[in-house]
Amino acid sequence: MAHLVCMTTPIPLPHPLPGLPPLLDIRELSEYLGVPVSTIYDWRSRGVGPRAYRFGKHLKFAVADVTEWIEAQRDPAPSARSVPPQLPRR
User: Fold this and answer.
1) What is the pTM of this model?
2) pLDDT, tens digit, 9 for 90 and up, residues 21-30
3) What angle do CA 14, 26, 13 make, to 5 degrees?
């Protein structure tokens, strides 16, 4: 009987697991980016969102992939041409 208790008692895992990349589910990514979950699904259907892993019906996003995708969304630095000329001081 004692061996059955050991089989049903979950063993706590360290979080995050050493050596594995941290993953976000779609709800966590939605909250982090401040956009609806439906927007993330739309981005995926158009091929413009962050890369994801699929585990059955579940999507998981590696934090490193999300960070890389976020950086790719950054507006380019303003060029010298796009800065309006300054008027001479008097």
Assistant:
1) 0.67
2) 899 999 999 9
3) 10
DSSP symbols for 5-59: HHHHSPPPPPSSPTTS--EEEHHHHHHHHTS-HHHHHHHHHHT-S---EEETTEE
- Taken in order of first residue, the domains within the chain and their CATH numbers are 19-72 (1.10.10)
What gap in Å lies between CA 54 and CA 40, rounded to an integer? 14
For residue 62, give the 3-state DSSP assignment: strand
- What dihedral angle (degrees, nearest 10) is formed by the CA atoms of 26, 27, 30, 34? -170
User: Does residue 1 contact residue 22 with C-beta atoms inside 8 Å?
Assistant: no
